[in-house]
Amino acid sequence: LRLLRNSAVVAVATVVVTVGVGTLAAYAAARLQFFGKRTINTAMVLVYLFPAIVMAIPLFVLFSAIGLRDSLVGLMNVYLAQTIPVALYMLRSYFQSVPLEIEESALIDGCSRLSLIGRIVLPLAAPALVAVGLYVFMIAWNEFLYALLFLTQSQELWTLPLGLQQLDNQEIPKTVLMAGAVIISLPIIIIFFVAERFLVEGLTAGSVKG
After folding, report:
1. More confident residue, 114 or 15
2. Could you tell me if 60 and 54 are in contact, meaning their C-beta atoms sit under 8 angstroms apart?
3. What pLDDT, in 10s, does the model give residues 78-137?
4. Which alpha helices (H) appear in the chain, and where do they start and end?
5. What is the distance of C-alpha 184 from the center of its chain?
């Protein structure tokens, strides 16, 4: 249960922060004009293209120096560095597909930019938000490499993938390990079937600009 709780805390927190930050950043990248916009957009995509193994050692050294190693907060920040760029990329494409006339009409009627995002943009972007949320949840829930690097010495903080791998090195019946593998898979399967319609719409609409 401790492994399950740790994985759930990290995954849910990563989803909430990534979707929140990614939504605001993606909307700004899609609709607002500011200095360095193209450079920032390119940089975010380049960060996502770096393989996890390339960033592992630098992040390990950095987080060890600032005292965030052996903590779920540190692990979550690593996941955020991985997931926010892809969330920004997917959501930006979706926001660009939303008709600009709808937003202009709302602004003319006196709607503020924040109200516009909350009342008009977010409801229209619900499929994309669900798709991004599920994708981020899958990354944070199943991730093993960074959990191994950051949490190996803190057994009470192990996540499910790390815990199962460590148990595999002990004299644990394979049936127990298989049951653990099923437990890891169940949340993803359940969420996918519940949000399947939104997921398909979000991935399709986010791949092209209208």
Report:
1. 15
2. no
3. 999 888 888 888 888 888 887 888 888 888 888 888 888 888 888 888 888 888 898 899
4. 2-31, 37-49, 52-65, 72-97, 100-108, 113-116, 122-124, 126-142, 145-151, 160-168, 174-194, 196-205
5. 17
Question: Which two tokens mark 77?
Answer: 């920040």
Task: For residue range 38-89, list pLDDT tens digits in order.
Answer: 887 777 777 777 777 888 888 888 888 888 888 899 999 999 988 888 888 8
Rounded to whole angstroms, what are the CA distances from 12 to 9, 55, 76, 141? Answer: 5, 23, 10, 9
210 lies in a domain? Answer: no
Domain count, the chain: 1
Find the CATH number of the domain harbouring 165: 1.10.3720.10
Q: Cβ–Cβ contacts within 10 Å for residue 93, how many?
A: 18
pLDDT at 199: 63
Q: Does some domain include residue 183?
A: yes
Cα–Cα distance for residue pair 96/86, rounded to 1 Å: 16
Name 23's Cβ contacts closer than 8 Å, sequence gap at least 6.
Answer: 87, 91, 117, 122, 125, 129
CB 17 within 8 A of CB 82: no
Q: Establish if 51 belongs to a structural domain.
A: yes
**147 located within any domain:** yes
The residue written with tokens 């994708």 in the block is: 135
